[in-house]
Specification:
Two copies of one chain form a homodimer. Chain A is an alpha/beta fold. Among the domains of chain A are: about 5-100, Beta-grasp domain (Ubiquitin-like (UB roll), Roll), CATH 3.10.20.30; about 125-200, Ubiquitin-like (UB roll); about 365-400 and about 515-620, ATPase, nucleotide binding domain (Nucleotidyltransferase, domain 5); about 405-505, no CATH class. Chain A is built from 17 helices and 30 strands. Chain A has a seven-stranded mixed beta sheet with strand order 8-15-14-13-16-18-17, with helices on both faces. In chain A, strands 29-28-19-20-21-30 form a six-stranded mixed beta sheet. In chain A, strands 2-1-7-3-5 form a five-stranded mixed beta sheet. In chain A, strand 20 and strand 21 (about 390-395) form a beta hairpin. The longest helix of chain A has 24 residues, at about 500-525. The first copy, chain A, is globular, with a radius of gyration of 26 Å. The termini of chain A are far apart. The interface between A and B is large, with 51 and 50 residues.
Chain lengths: ~625, ~625
């Protein structure tokens, strides 16, 4: 097999590959992080490069329009190396990989912050400053006993860490600091463990990270444990996406040689990148970070811990671990203080993970007397129904469309994303972007508005097809697809039109259908009716905006009294943050995970019929959506 | 500087060294373990080699007699390389390094075994066999929760290990063993931690090691945790001895570059060698060993844990840690099951370590109403006086003479050591060796008998000098030294005469004087008299024999009613074993170490006078030994 050199611009990196290697794989091997949420299937259209020199074999893609094709734009994943080549990432691709980790607005809605106050501030990491008396000939208490004695009464039950490193240099630390030290303690199972001893009084700074680890999206927050303040939030596409869009493909990849290592370093890389970015932005020291608490689906947590997830993939779908012991962050290559810990919220099963337990905690589902519904719209749409007596949880394969992945102009809910969209009677488009900058794409809440408006204005039919007969310069045909233009290239920050196509709508329709039909199936399963539900929490990575009215209009959510709905943003991240800030909250997750029964939708006889009936806007049975007038 | 090659026989190893390097250092660097308890000072006479070829510069030594000198025997530590040389270790030296780790008889005396029964058998490591039901579609409990649920009720409070490795392959282990597994649990601070999961029923084997780690001597036992049976005992000279005979030299060496690493690997090597030897002798699997419990002096434990011991050496002599957290054996490079733990009994101060706490536990000092004395005769003679109300501990620099080190024919209490010696009226010598084989040398209890008999028969005067006027073929002059022959070369297993010299007696006299004066000083310190003491336990590495009458006769022990004395052997090892076999015993050491006050003999005004007065057989003030008639 012949070998060729691929040179990447503007990075200036090169790599030798064998003939026929695709450029996406070559870039990945060269250490360039490329956003390719479809996993190199050629369907997301994100990995765009221009071939400057050399010979390639490429598949033409409908995702590359004529203008781009003329500029030499190809999809890296669909382009094979046939000689020495030089390629340049497009401006759009550059945005993707230069800003893999984005600053995000606070996801947190009022409901959750109010609940956070219910739990007293008692963070998992605490610091105690001690001014000890130096030993004398008459007081030969050992250094460690001296510290333990001083801590008594000031903290609860104490346990010595099994990590030897924590006491190895104790003697020097004490003497260099003139016996004035700060003890860093981690709470665990009713006792506190000494993590570290710092010279002098360092109680002024006590920071930690909360994470939500999703299949498509990873979100992280830097938290001040002294006040509960959120110092910053970051959001990124999960770097594992290059190995597969959904958890099934990832689990299969994990069982291939070297697969686990790659998946693990992908998501750990996400975590470390966010930590690094937030540390720098807030000008704080890495050494001051002693904990992360993460909520995530079962597969993600297994992969972070490098535990074989294959049990999750095969009947009867049992995870190796559901309540994870806290482990050393260093053991996981998570770059905080090397003596720090990483804790993971417990999950229930393959499809109801710690992210949902975290959401239940954040919304207080397990404390309600009334029947409550929690719908978390992510790559899997997870649904929990219940109250303080019982809970049933399930998941629908929604796909990552509402996370902005797999769509022509989809993006995360970060700066530049269209999050509110209105189409007026003249079919002119008005939109608001996150951070009020020129638009770069459309996020989940933008798509919900967009579909609702297209349906209302007749731009799209109930079947989800763009109306070919509408007279508007915004509607055009490209190959066999129709597309609707929201913003022309000159109005955007990406020098390309921001559009939605028939294919995108089809994708979104399947997502909304999967979620709606799952909600109905789970309610039916327990012999209840949607009218029995007294409170509905909607969670997901929608930034700080989601239009419930429009969600109902397109048939994503049931048509019930609007006042029982509450949009809570990223409830998984909120629950992780609450667990970090309060031991009571952390301990409560243990009870929650044990009280949830898992329901397998695929095994429900009526589910497939419900799903098929939901593949219409708003629904095949229009009687279910009495308030929707078309 | 010129370089030369030194070749060692019979090992066949070679090494390049610079001119002037001593042969002991060269051998050590070549990876040959040489017994040199004096640390290369030229005073123990153990490192004997014959120079076969080449040129050396050597110091003549009184420890090499004429016959040996003619054979070309030199002390390796006193011999410098001046050309390429070849050397052969003598038969005696070979014995020393081929059998660094010796099989030893059971040290345990009745008193301790009787006490061991007071503590219920509840070993630190326990195993529970579980036959679990496999998960089904209706029972999706995670693998780990399934195990935790099954353990509930069968064991007390449970804690998950923070070591991730223990659950990493849980899923495979469960399935490969058809859900029949054995859970290995370690007790710690009131809860049990899951160490490991083994396929099938492995409860048939549950083994562990107890260790006594002394400055001069290391002793280890393989214990069956199911029954408390001792499966074998090993004893060796501490391999650190080559870096210094006492703990002060070792602490200084630890602060030199690379010193800590060498001291650490020396003693860890001792431990691993004993484990390996006992594992093989008992045909058991290393994987079945999940714990070691070690009692040792503070310096030794600091060095095993690689904690800087410098605080122990400088006023006010405070240790970094006195109650050591159990750590992973693997972290210490101790070769048992890699998931196993290593626990260390707590100590009090530089000179009253975990070995003494262990002895107090073994003898029950802290449970007695009456005033009790514990005397542990080792490199430091440690003394504890007290009862259930209070305890005071101190240490005398006894030196390693009673451990058989630093004496012409001294050896450990192992096979071939003369342990009982009688000199009859004709000055003929009758002796009994351990294991009843031809003699190789004299151990501590042999020396006590020997001194007592020499004193009684007038072979030695009260000043400790061999009587030059005695007419006997056993007494002879060599250089300026007189010596007494116990066994002629033909009677021995080492082809050399077994003797005692004036120098040896002087050494023993200082040891016995240090111990006796420490006993008296500590009793005086608390305003008591020796007659107030109702029970005296004598501990030390004397094998299973120590003649109390003879010990009093030479002035090592106070002249009181014999019935209050009890010889308990290696009480440090016994306490470690008890702590391994009973959680109550293990927990009791925590209370003991906190209840001991340390007394610094060096700071006692009367101590030096006491010591000087004790440098006589039995004592300068003969009135103190009314029962001794000379």
């Amino acid at each position: 097999m012949r070998e060729f050199t691929v040179k990447f611009h503007p990075q200036g990196k090169s790599i030798r590959v064998t003939q026929g290697t695709d450029i996406l794989s070559a870039a990945t091997r060269a250490g360039i992080v490329v956003s390719a949420p479809c996993g190199g299937e050629g369907v997301c259209g994100k990995c765009r490069v221009i071939v400057d020199k050399g010979s390639v074999k490429t598949e033409s893609s409908r995702l590359v329009d004529d203008a781009d094709r003329k500029r030499g734009v190809v999809l890296a994943c669909q382009t094979l190396v046939e000689s020495d080549v030089e390629v340049t990432f497009t401006k759009e691709s550059l945005e993707a990989h230069e800003h893999l980790c984005h600053e995000a607005e606070d996801f947190t809605k009022g409901v959750i912050l109010k609940r956070e106050n219910k739990f007293p501030l008692s963070p998992l990491i605490s610091k105690v400053y001690l001014e000890l008396t130096a030993p004398t000939a008459d007081d030969g208490t050992s250094d460690l006993d001296r510290i333990m004695d001083a801590l008594k009464g000031r903290v609860g039950a104490l346990r010595l860490s099994t990590r030897l490193t924590n006491i190895k240099h104790l003697s020097e630390v004490l003497r260099e600091s003139d016996f004035k030290i700060t003890v860093v303690l981690a709470y665990r199972e009713g006792a506190q463990e000494i993590l570290s001893l710092e010279p002098g009084d360092t109680t002024g700074s006590n920071l930690a990270f909360a994470f939500d680890i999703g299949t498509t999206t990873v979100a992280g927050q830097l938290i001040d444990l002294k006040t509960g303040t959120i110092l910053g939030t970051r959001i990124a596409f999960n770097a594992q996406a290059v190995y597969g869009a959904d958890i099934i493909t990832r689990m299969i990849y994990a069982s291939e040689p070297g697969g686990m290592a790659k998946l693990n370093s992908g998501v750990v890389g996400n975590i470390n990148e966010m930590i690094d970015d937030l540390i720098k932005a807030n000008k704080v020291n890495l050494g001051d970070i002693y904990a992360i608490v993460a909520a995530g689906n079962m597969t993600m947590i297994h992969l972070i811990l490098k535990i074989d997830p294959s049990g999750l993939r095969k009947a009867p779908y049992v995870s190796t671990v559901s309540a994870f012991p806290p482990v050393s962050a260093a053991e996981l290559a998570i770059e905080i203080n090397p003596r720090g810990i990483a804790a993971f919220l417990p999950g229930v099963s393959t499809y109801v993970g710690g992210d949902i337990v975290s959401g239940i905690l954040a919304c207080g589902v397990a404390e309600n007397d009334d029947l409550t519904l929690l719908v978390d719209i992510g790559t899997n749409g997870e649904i929990v129904l219940g109250n303080r007596e019982w809970m049933i949880g399930s998941a629908a394969s929604a796909g990552p469309a509402f996370e902005g992945s797999g769509l022509t102009c989809g993006m995360k809910a970060v700066s530049g994303a269209m999050q509110r969209i209105i189409i007026d009677a003249n079919l002119d488009v008005k939109f608001e972007t996150i951070s009020h900058v020129a638009p770069k794409g459309i996020c989940g809440s933008g798509y919900i508005d967009l579909l609702s408006q297209m349906l209302k204005r007749g731009v799209m039919g109930k079947d989800g097809k763009i109306n070919r007969d509408t007279a508007s310069g915004r509607i055009r045909r490209v190959d066999n697809n129709y597309e609707f233009v929201l913003a022309f290239a000159s109005e955007t920050a990406i020098d390309r039109d921001i559009i939605i196509r028939d294919d995108d709508i089809d994708n979104l329709k399947r997502s909304k259908g999967a979620i709606y039909s799952a909600i109905i199936s789970i309610i039916n399963k327990v012999g209840k009716d949607i009218t029995d539900v007294k409170k509905i929490y909607i969670a997901g990575g929608f930034g700080n905006y989601l239009n419930i009215e429009n969600s109902i209009f397109i048939g994503l959510l049931p048509d019930v009294e609007r006042s029982i709905y509450e949009f809570v943003g990223n409830s998984s991240l909120a629950g992780a943050r609450m667990s970090l800030l309060s031991r009571d909250a952390f301990n409560a997750t243990e009870g929650i995970h044990k009280n949830i029964t898992y329901m397998d939708l695929a095994a429900e006889p009526g589910y497939m019929d419900e799903y098929i009936a939901a593949l219409f806007f708003p629904h095949t049975e229009i009687g279910r959506f009495p308030s929707v007038r078309l």
